[in-house]
Amino acid sequence: MEGQLREANSARAAFESAKARMEQEAALMQQHNDWLRAELTKKSEELLGARKVRLARCREYPAVTLLQSATCRWMYYNAKTLEE
């Protein structure tokens, strides 16, 4: 009977230890996900800002070469899509 009690206590201790490790791992994963989400948001905002600047430059110079004009059109429509 005493052996079964020790075995049950040992199993409970192992379970509690595994549970604590999993909770710690979940917390670390959540922190990492939050950091990744913040980085993605920051980079997306920077990219959108850069595209808006380039689009404004394209609008400033209407007499651009054909290639630049095509690039400006692509950026204009791409920027509009990102803003929506």
Can you give a write-up of this model?
By secondary structure, this protein is an all-alpha fold. The chain has one domain. The protein is built from two helices and no strands. It has helices at 2-60, 66-83. Helix 1 (2-60) crosses helix 2 (66-83). The longest helix has 59 residues, at 2-60. The model has no long low-confidence stretch (mean pLDDT 83).
Any idea how many domains? 1
Number of helices: 2
Q: Main sheet?
A: none
Shape: rod-shaped
Task: Give the class from helix and strand content and strand pairing.
Answer: mainly alpha
According to DSSP, the number of beta strands is 0
Distance between the termini: 69 Å
Order of secondary-structure elements: HH
Helix residue percentage = over 70%
* Radius of gyration from the alpha-carbon trace, in angstroms: 28 Å
In terms of DSSP E residues, the strand content is under 5%
The parts where pLDDT drops under 50 for at least 5 residues are none
Whole-number average pLDDT? 83
Write the layout of secondary structure elements.
Layout (H helix, E strand, L loop, with lengths): L1 H59 L5 H18 L1
Keywords:
mainly alpha; 84 residues; rod-shaped
Kindly summarize this structure in a few lines:
The chain has 84 residues and is mainly α.
